[in-house]
């Protein structure tokens, strides 16, 4: 084969292989993007999850569609436990307008939610007169964390402390000694962390336990369009 033809042949062969390579890479990239979008679409609202009520019955969060939700991990023997009183006031003020509080006791922080699900419920009813729904005790951090709380943390990371709160110095000292970089992680830091959900089931805000309930109320009103 003449030298010129040979060079052209090799060039064409190389060009063909190059085009095939880029074509395959492009397909792979499109598949990757499509998979990410599909997964993002699949898990973008809390309505994808089911939880267990305090008696162990499965409850789909689709039951709360078109409502504004405040999801809270709680404890009965915590310095923040008196927030139950403020939460009940929020519930009474906005429930008729389409607001719901979902209470998830958790014993991961200082073992401050001991007892059975029923005893926790009785405590809250007796001491704070709570009427909002309470669910089965869950874990919110670690490999065994409830899938709902994994999703909530992925949606909204640590929101920062209100440093004027009297319990802030205690939490800051304890948590920073355990992990100097704890603020960089989305894990829930303590009891009474709250996630605000809009009427479409999307996580719109996270509030650490030091956040003033009055500040949360303002955002609830905005979502309820009051």
Automatic annotation (TrEMBL):
Q: What keywords would UniProt list here?
A: Oxidoreductase, Peroxidase
Determine if Oxidoreductase is one of this entry's keywords: yes
Q: Which family does it belong to?
A: Belongs to the glutathione peroxidase family.
- Gene Ontology molecular function, alphabetical: peroxidase activity
Q: Its Gene Ontology biological processes?
A: cellular response to oxidative stress
Top-level taxon in the UniProt lineage? Bacteria
The gene behind this protein is gpo2
Give the active-site positions.
78
Q: Does the keyword tRNA processing apply?
A: no
Q: What is this protein called?
A: Glutathione peroxidase
Q: Which InterPro entries match?
A: Glutathione_peroxidase (IPR000889), GPX_CS (IPR029760), Thioredoxin-like_sf (IPR036249)
């Amino acid at each position: 084969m003449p030298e010129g033809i040979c060079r052209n042949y090799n060039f064409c062969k190389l060009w063909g292989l190059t085009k095939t390579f880029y074509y395959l890479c492009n397909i792979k990239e499109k598949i990757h993007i499509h998979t990410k979008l599909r997964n993002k679409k699949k898990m973008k609202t809390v309505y994808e999850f089911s939880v267990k009520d305090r008696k162990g019955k499965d409850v789909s969060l689709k039951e709360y569609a078109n409502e504004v939700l405040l999801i809270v991990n709680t404890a009965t023997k915590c310095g923040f436990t008196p927030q139950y009183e403020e939460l009940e006031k929020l519930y009474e003020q906005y429930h008729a307008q389409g607001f719901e509080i979902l209470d998830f006791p958790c014993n991961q922080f200082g073992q401050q939610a001991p007892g059975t699900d029923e005893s926790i419920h009785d405590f809250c009813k007796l001491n704070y007169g709570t009427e909002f729904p309470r669910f089965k005790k869950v874990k919110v951090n670690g490999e065994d964390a409830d899938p709902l709380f994994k999703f909530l943390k992925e949606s909204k990371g640590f929101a920062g402390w209100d440093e004027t709160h009297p319990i802030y110095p205690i939490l800051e000292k304890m948590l920073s000694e355990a992990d100097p970089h704890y603020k960089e992680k989305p894990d829930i830091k303590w009891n009474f962390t709250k996630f605000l959900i809009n009427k479409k089931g999307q996580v719109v805000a996270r509030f650490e336990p030091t956040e003033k309930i009055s500040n949360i109320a303002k955002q609830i009103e905005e979502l309820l369009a009051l």
